[in-house]
Write a structure and sequence with these properties.
Elements (H helix, E strand, L loop, with lengths): L8 H20 L6 H22 L4 H11 L3 H15 L8 H19 L1 H4 L3 E6 L8 E5 L1 H27 L2 H26 L9 H19 L6 H10 L3 E6 L4 E4 L1 H7 L3 H4 L4 H5 L15 E9 L2 E13 L5 E10 L1 H50 L8 H31 L8 E4 H19 L2 E6 L6 E4 L1 H17 L5 E10 L2 E8 L33 H11 L3 E7 L3 E9 L13
Parallel strand pairs: 9-11
Antiparallel strand pairs: 1-2, 3-4, 3-7, 5-6, 6-7, 8-10, 11-12, 12-14, 13-14
Helix pairs in contact: 1-2, 1-9, 2-3, 2-4, 2-9, 4-5, 4-7, 5-7, 7-8, 8-9, 14-15, 15-18, 16-17, 17-18
The chain binds adenosine-5'-diphosphate.
Length: 599
């Protein structure tokens, strides 16, 4: 078999190469949806062009007829492939079901069978023969009735595809329009070639369709590549917009509705078909509050109280302008979210917080009042018990004296507790202030020592005090509060130490601070408790470790006082080996500069 490349055959050969190439190109991108269908379309064009090329080159009717039938293997189905491509691409994949495909392909399949069995019935081609008087070989024939069925079907499907493209073009936003345009151009080329075929001055029997299909294929491939149709399919975007729970509206530059997603339809109570072309003012009902969102060229975001379908709502609005390539505002994307529930719960939270604060205030007040009220009767109890013990009311027996002593002890303990409670309440109420006055450190320490001496003796502990020489004689601070801190810490040290020593060391860790460290050889504090014992009413194990009771306020008060003095308190302790509490305070030596030259 020899081939000649003439003005008629060469374009077919070229078309075969182009469509074959496009098929391979598209197959390489087959992971993109739609690419496989495009490859199939190009495959059928390839078979068509090549088959036709061989037909044109045939030397006998039998050979020509064979190649003509070969073309009929793929050509009748091509238009269905095109339809599927259009459906895929315009986001109507739901119609591409195996059942629908079977229905679509039914007539093309019959056409193929009838083509190959034409000799027996001539339903497709009547009296097929080799054409005469043309510079190529081709089979000519009269049209059988099935020929018209097939042709009509092809035109119908092609028209349907074109309508789908036009409709979705008018509904899409700019980004997707360009892509749909590419497919429309393909339709246009195919349509024009038909016009040329029917009305044009082309040698009779010569079919230029394989050429137009390849050229169209190039356009589509270019479009696919350029706009990445297969990558950014509107379907994907539509799907997101359709299934998203936020209401999404697209309006044009004049704020007229171009699109609504189902959530927006439900939200505003409008069907897309009714809303199309409406000014957004109509849709939302209240323009006054919304207008500012649609005025600027920049994205806007905010919350607006609105009546939506007769219901008061708070909506969160996000308006994003969409610009075309030319830089002009094309559309605005409006995302609406109903935040009414969130707003309500925020409000409830604020109210709950206010209530909690009120309750706290009441509790503090109560604590302060109660503590205060407890103090006076306690004073009376203590006073009378002391008078009783001292024999003011007459001679008492040793047994009675012992009982009076117990009453005095308990009353003292209770007074200390009430003092702590009262003090804690005062600190919380911000009623405690620390003074900044000069005081003599060594005198203050001596006072503390004297105060603690009895307790130390009773427990048989050793109490050592060491004051570094570098500690200045006079410091500025609140001597009473510092004493209170020390008494608390040393008290604890004695309380939680069965034997050994309690040390107090006063020193300067650096030239801007001075420190008071109270060390004991007692129970120690377990690591996990070290973080919370400074909190009010917190104790280690609710202290069952000793039979001396407390309520867990001492350290809390100490910590708060230290903080008020701009100081810090640190704890270093190993359970069973003792603890060291170190209070570090800013070193303030004097408030005024002394001349130092007197005398
Ligand atoms: P409390 O009135 O119970 O002593 P504090 O606030 O003074 O309250 O102390 C809180 C808890 O810290 C105490 O109950 C005790 O468990 C623990 N603690 C405080 N100081 C010491 C210490 N020097 N040694 C061991 N445990 C201590």
């Amino acid at each position: 078999m020899t081939f000649s490349f003439t003005i008629y055959t060469a374009p077919m050969f070229l078309s075969a190469i182009v469509s074959g190439g496009l098929m391979l190109w598209s197959l390489r991108r087959r992971t993109s949806p739609g690419a496989i269908w495009f490859a199939l379309l190009m495959f059928s064009t390839f078979v068509w062009a090549l088959g036709y090329f061989f037909e044109l080159n045939s030397t006998s009717y039998v050979v020509a007829q064979f190649w003509s039938k070969v073309q009929y293997l793929t050509v009748p189905g091509a238009v269905i492939i095109w339809l599927v491509l259009v459906l895929t691409y315009t986001g109507q994949e739901k119609y591409i079901t195996p059942r629908n495909l079977a229905i679509f392909f039914l007539i093309p399949a019959l056409t193929i069978v009838l083509a190959w069995t034409n000799d027996y019935h001539q339903w497709l081609w009547i009296n097929p023969r080799l054409s005469a008087d043309v510079p190529f070989s081709t089979v000519i024939f009269e049209h059988g009735w099935w020929y018209w069925v097939n042709t009509g079907y092809i035109y119908a499907v092609f028209a349907l595809s074109t309508i789908i493209l036009i409709v979705s073009y008018s509904r899409s936003i700019a980004l997707y329009r360009r892509q749909i345009m590419v497919l429309l151009i393909f339709s246009g080329i195919v349509f024009l070639s038909n016009v040329v075929y029917v009305f044009g001055n082309i040698t009779e029997g010569y079919n230029i369709s394989p050429i137009t299909f390849s050229v169209g294929g190039i356009v589509v491939a270019w479009g696919l590549f350029r706009y990445r149709i297969f990558n950014v399919m509107p379907i994907a975007a539509d799907l997101v917009v359709d299934t998203i729970s936020d209401a999404v509206i697209v309006v044009d530059a004049g704020n007229r509705v171009l699109n609504l997603n189902p959530a927006a339809e439900r939200f505003w109570g409008y069907k897309l078909t009714d809303a199309l072309g409406l000014h957004i003012e109509k849709l939302t009902g209240s323009w006054a509050k919304l207008a500012e969102f649609f005025r600027t060229d920049a994205p806007v975001h905010g919350e607006v109280p609105l009546m939506v379908q007769q219901e008061a709502k708070t909506i969160e609005l996000q308006v994003t302008p969409i610009y075309g390539r030319d830089g002009w505002l094309n559309a605005r994307l409006v995302v609406v979210r109903d935040v009414t529930a969130r707003k309500k719960s925020e409000q409830a939270l604020v109210e709950a917080r206010n209530q909690a604060l009120d309750a706290l205030r009441v509790r503090r007040q109560l604590l302060a009042n109660v503590s205060h009220e407890l103090r006076s009767p306690l004073g009376t109890i203590l006073g009378f018990a002391e008078l009783l013990e001292g024999g003011t009311f007459g001679e008492i027996s040793p047994k009675q004296r012992d009982v009076a002593g117990k009453i005095i002890d308990s009353a003292n303990y209770l007074t200390a507790l009430v003092d702590d409670l009262l003090y804690q309440a005062q600190i919380e109420a911000g009623a405690v202030a620390v003074k900044a006055e000069p005081f003599d450190v060594r005198t203050m320490i001596r006072r503390v020592e004297e105060k603690m001496a009895v307790l130390v003796d009773v427990k048989g502990l050793q109490f050592r005090v060491d004051i570094d020489d570098v500690v200045p004689q006079t410091l500025i601070g609140d001597t009473l509060r510092i004493q209170q801190i020390l008494v608390n810490l040393i008290n604890n040290a004695i309380k939680y130490t069965a034997e050994g020593t309690v040390d107090l060391r006063v020193y300067c860790p650096d030239d801007r601070h001075w420190a008071l460290a109270v060390r004991d050889t007692g129970l120690g504090i377990p690591a996990q408790a070290q973080s919370y014992i400074f909190d009010a009413f917190r104790q280690v194990d609710n202290d069952k470790r000793t039979n001396i009771h407390g309520v867990g306020l001492g350290l809390s008060i100490v910590k708060q006082l230290v903080t008020m003095m701009d100081g810090t308190i640190e704890l270093d302790s190993v359970e069973g080996r003792g603890s060291t509490f170190t209070v570090t305070l800013p070193l303030q030596v004097t408030t005024s500069v002394s001349t130092g030259e007197t005398g």
